[in-house]
Amino acid sequence: MGCEDRLELLSGRDLRRTITRLASQIIEFSDTPDDLLLLGIPTRGVLLADVLGKELEALLGLPVEVGSLDPTFHRDDLESRPTRLPQATELPTSVDGRHVVLVDDVVFTGRTTRAAIEALLAWGRPQAVRLLVMVDRGHRELPIQPDFCGRVVPTRRSEFIQLKLQPVDAEEGVFLLRQPPG
């Protein structure tokens, strides 16, 4: 893919600053860090939740529970849209009474978030649920908005957002792709 097909939205340094800002916003949201639970939505949301968990631990001086929540079987568009293979949901604790932050790299139509909320409620009754995304790219089909957002980037439906994080990727940053990643 040529350089003209990829636009850097956040450099690695900007991404790190954004993660610190988002972690600070999460701290303000939660009454006590003890009841906080970060749940990443596969695939990149899981990695982002881990990074945020480490940042929160550095800011708070104590660990924050982090897990993953796969909403695949709760999607309402499985027949019309190809999906990835389901991943295991990993909950480090009960969701009952917790302040849950669902973490995803991008919010687009809102269907993944809706499915994640449905999947979460199948596991219990949290005190509150918030949505954190690195990028809100618009094109919502459902009335879902992130509570915490790294960057709002209006896109075309044909464009894609790519989050790159260490140590999985050789680089860090957020990129707009004009062709599907491949």
TrEMBL record:
CDD domains cross-referenced by the UniProt entry? PRTases_typeI
* Family annotation (Pfam families): Pribosyltran
Which EC numbers characterise this protein's activity in its record?
2.4.2.9
SUPFAM superfamilies linked to this entry: PRTase-like
Write the record's keywords in alphabetical order, separated by commas: Glycosyltransferase, Transcription, Transcription regulation, Transferase
Origin: domain of life: Bacteria
Residues forming the motif PRPP-binding are 100-112
Domain (Phosphoribosyltransferase) spans 8-145
Q: Which GO terms describe its molecular function?
A: uracil phosphoribosyltransferase activity
Q: Which reaction does it catalyse?
A: UMP + diphosphate = 5-phospho-alpha-D-ribose 1-diphosphate + uracil
GO BP: regulation of DNA-templated transcription
Give a short account of what the protein does: Also displays a weak uracil phosphoribosyltransferase activity which is not physiologically significant. Regulates the transcription of the pyrimidine nucleotide (pyr) operon in response to exogenous pyrimidines.
Q: Which HAMAP family match?
A: PyrR (MF_01219)
Family per similarity comment: Belongs to the purine/pyrimidine phosphoribosyltransferase family. PyrR subfamily.
**Record-given protein name:** Bifunctional protein PyrR
This chain's source organism reads Aphanocapsa feldmannii 277cV
Q: What is the lineage of its organism?
A: Bacteria, Bacillati, Cyanobacteriota, Cyanophyceae, Oscillatoriophycideae
